[in-house]
């Protein structure tokens, strides 16, 4: 059983997918963390973010693993906090737009589903990576709502960014994600739309868990 959750930044994908996986007893795949790891590595190693070929080579050579809880390891180092920083968030769309990077990570994502029930989130989980998934959801929310969620997340980590700035960044990221040539962000006809603007996290998880057939 594969459940895919796609949608734009700030729609609640990662949190909802993780909680849903815990409730169902499924494996959880945070695809966004993979692209964030590549972005962080590129920034720290001076790889040009416009060079798709170089980024693809970099992605192929990285060791990315998920530890206990929310821990993300990059080449053995805990980067859980750093990959959520604004410097990574601002640049991850450009990195993720490169066909070479997406190709390098596609196989890794599909292998995560082998022999297991899976909940995964991203921007192309239900359209490209797992187009035949059993349950396909598209989460969305108003830009202002998404920006406020991001502001609270950053504030908890000591980063102070205004909502107005974050709204502008969200809209630009949406534009980049939706217009990229390879695996653009889009809602497929068979994806169930869930607007999270006026819902709590628990309400969203309740709604999504109701979409999974009983006994799974």
Could you write a compact summary of the structure shown?
With 216 residues, the protein is of the alpha/beta class.
Number of domains: 1
Radius of gyration: 16 Å
Tally of helical segments? 9
Question: Class by helix and strand content?
Answer: alpha/beta
The quaternary structure here is single chain
State the major sheet.
5 strands, parallel
Order of helices and strands: EHEHHEEEHHEHEHHEH
Q: In percent, how much strand structure appears in the residues? A: 5-15%
| CATH homologous superfamily label | P-loop containing nucleotide triphosphate hydrolases
Describe what you observe in this structure.
- The chain has 216 residues and is an alpha/beta fold.
- It has helices spanning 13-24, 31-45, 52-61, 86-96, 99-111, 125-129, 143-156, 163-179, 201-209; strands at residues 2-6, 27-30, 64-66, 72-74, 77-78, 118-122, 135-140, 192-195.
- A hairpin with a 5-residue loop joins strand 3 (64-66) and strand 4.
- Helix 3 packs parallel to helix 5 (99-111), helix 4 runs parallel beside helix 8 and helix 7 (143-156) crosses helix 8 (163-179).
- The longest helix has 17 residues, at 163-179.
- The mean pLDDT is 91.
Could you name the key traits of this structure?
alpha/beta; Rossmann fold; 3-stranded antiparallel beta sheet; globular
Question: Topology of this protein?
Answer:
Blueprint: E1 2-6, H1 13-24, E2 27-30, H2 31-45, H3 52-61, E3 64-66, E4 72-74, E5 77-78, H4 86-96, H5 99-111, E6 118-122, H6 125-129, E7 135-140, H7 143-156, H8 163-179, E8 192-195, H9 201-209
């Amino acid at each position: 059983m594969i459940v895919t959750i796609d949608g734009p930044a700030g729609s609640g994908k990662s949190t909802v997918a993780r909680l849903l996986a815990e409730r169902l007893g499924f494996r959880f795949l945070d695809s966004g963390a993979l692209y964030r790891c590549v972005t962080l590595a590129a920034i720290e190693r001076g790889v040009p973010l416009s060079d798709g070929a170089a980024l693809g080579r970099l992605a192929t050579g990285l060791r990315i693993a998920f530890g206990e809880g929310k821990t993300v390891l990059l080449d053995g180092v805990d980067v859980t906090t750093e990959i959520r920083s604004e410097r990574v968030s601002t640049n991850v769309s450009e990195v993720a737009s490169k066909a070479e990077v997406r190709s390098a990570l596609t196989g890794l994502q599909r292998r995560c589903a082998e022999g297991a029930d899976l909940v995964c989130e991203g921007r192309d989980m239900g359209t490209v990576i797992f187009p035949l998934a059993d349950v396909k959801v598209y989460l969305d929310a108003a830009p202002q709502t998404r920006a406020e969620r991001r502001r609270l997340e950053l504030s908890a980590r000591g980063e102070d960014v205004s909502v107005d700035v974050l709204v502008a960044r969200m809209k630009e990221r949406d534009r980049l994600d939706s217009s990229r040539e390879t695996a653009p962000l889009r809602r497929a006809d068979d994806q169930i739309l869930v607007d999270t603007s006026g819902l709590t996290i628990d309400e969203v998880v309740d709604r999504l868990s109701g979409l999974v057939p009983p006994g799974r």
